[in-house]
Amino acid sequence: MSDIKFGTDGWRGRIADDYTFANVRRCAQGFANYLHANGKQGSVVVGHDKRFQAEHFAATTAEVLAGNGFKVYLTDKATPTPVISFSVGEKGALGAINITASHNPPEDCGFKVRDEYGGAIAPAGLAQIESLIPAASDTGAIKSAKLAEALKNGSIEYFDAKPAYLLRIAELIDVQPIKDAGLKIVVDNMWGNGAGWLTEILGGGKTEIIEVHAERNPIFPEMKRPEPIPPNVDAGLATGKQLGANCVCIMDGDADRCGFGDENGEFIDQLRVYGLLAYYLLEVRGQRGAIVKTLSTTSMLDKLAKLYGVPVINTGVGFKYVAPAMMEHDAMIGGEESGGYAFRGHVPERDGIVSNLYLLDAMVRTGKTPTELVAALFAKVGAHYYDRIDTRVTDDATKQAAKAKLDAVKAEAITLGGHKVTEKVTLDGYKFIMDDGGWLLVRFSGTEPLIRVYTETTDQVAVAAILADGKRLAGL
Q: 103 is in which domain, residue-wise?
């Protein structure tokens, strides 16, 4: 068993503690072994974010892949995760490795892996990669080339991923009406890879783009972490309110997740955003197709699917489940509670750039403000209210005790926030369906030492009580 564990989206660790150059080399060798074990030979895309030493960890990864006989396309700068994923198909590569910890705290870095479609690798593949990581003591198992030599002989090649991706954007959406709309848009890049992208895509017209948190600063001032939810987005939302912006577009540290603020500087939670994106595709653009959703996201999607006659595919949490389901069902949209959404005709990967562009397009095409769009969505499916509590738990004893308590819960014997529980679902965590159609989910994070308690309900006044009852069920 490897001491390096691949969770929901690859491996993440604390820089200079377990996330070291030596362990990055081991992970890269594990990925190379995985490709060889599956009879694959060709090229791999390698990219990185703006975290501490990220470009050097990426170069180290490229050296190991080159040492194993793979051609490496290494991004020449910090590049959004969806752009790296798109580049896999554009280069005809076998997959990608992305050095990023996404929305984790500044002390962390990560090692994301992607398949030949640019999507998350399914759980069986992740388990195989993990099993093929050499032991820490087996330094002789790691093959590596020198960066300068590999660049000279062409086995590693720096490339700019932007031009090809911008051509794809032009295929997905006509941005000219947004450029001509005369909107004032604040973009909060959360010190990450999304900086400059929306300005380049939407600049040159009547619409004004004001970017905040656009520089490289790996300690992420004004936020605990670059996760696009409050309180991390509060400073960006305040800027939008102060400047009288029509909306605030938000992207997390590697720009694969989307956050959104309305014309009053108020946050629109990520479940409502998913509902808005599905409503936009179904109602405004007239698309039809399956909706893929994790069990931790909104039941508004089920109601929209029924109204528009499209299927819903439910999965476990993480794009390692969403991406394969999108491919299998040719889904119109796929997404999860964390603010990650993917779209048909693109890559089966979260894309914060496209998500924000689609939300802006919804505003322009309908002539509605963000609050009016939410009202239009609620007119279709009813008002829904969501919240989440994260509890940090680092010891296994507490985790096992929580699991034992949750295993023992009988759905018919409990109420949550005064609502009867009608069903218990254990697909990925512990989900309790309530009599109003709402739900509570208690889940152990696959990327951090956290126990998350989430709820969505039609009963606004019961939200806090439902979450409190959920924590009690887990003994927290």
A: 11-161
Co-location of 142 and 183 in the same domain: no
For residues 97 and 15, membership in a common domain is answered with yes
Contact by Cβ (8 Å): 370, 326: no
**Alpha carbons 23 and 446: distance in angstroms, whole number:** 19
pLDDT at 343 over 90: yes
Q: Are residues 271 and 359 in the same domain?
A: yes
Q: Residue 475 carries which DSSP code?
A: T
* The two structure tokens encoding residue 356: 């924000």
From 103, 10, 102, 123, select the one nearest 61 (Cα to Cα). Answer: 10
Structurally, the chain folds into a number of domains equal to: 3
Predicted local distance difference test score (pLDDT) of residue 183: 98
Residue 113: beta bridge partners? 97
* Tokens describing residue 198: 């929306």
Please indicate, yes or no, whether residues 365 and 397 belong to a single structural domain of this protein: no
pLDDT band at 317 (very low <50, low <70, confident <90, very high): confident
- What's the pLDDT score for residue 292? 98
Dist CA 234 CA 380 (whole Å): 29
| 68 and 156 together in one domain | yes
Give the separation between CA 332 and CA 344, rounded to whole angstroms. Answer: 5
Burial of 105 (0-12, 13-18, 19+ CB in 10 A): middle
Helix (H, G, I), strand (E, B) or coil at 402: helix
How high is the pLDDT of residue 2?
Answer: 66
pLDDT of amino acid 123: 87
Give the type of residue at 30: G
Q: What percent of the chain has a predicted confidence (pLDDT) above 90? A: 92
Same-domain pairing of 186 and 251: yes
User: Are 363 and 370 within 8 A, CB to CB?
Assistant: yes
Dump the DSSP string for 430-466.
EEEEETTS-EEEEEE-SSSSEEEEEEEES-GGGHHHH
- Both 182 and 331 in a single domain? yes
The answer to the question of residue 423 being in a domain is yes
Residue 446's pLDDT band, with cuts at 50, 70 and 90, is confident
Instruction: Give the pLDDT confidence of 174-233 residue by residue, as tens digits.
Output: 999 999 999 999 999 999 999 999 999 999 999 999 999 999 999 999 999 999 999 999
Q: Report residue 431: phi and psi, to 5°.
A: -110, 130
Q: Tell me: the pLDDT tens digits for 67-79?
A: 999 999 999 999 9
Whether residue 177 has a cis bond before it, omega within 30° of 0: no
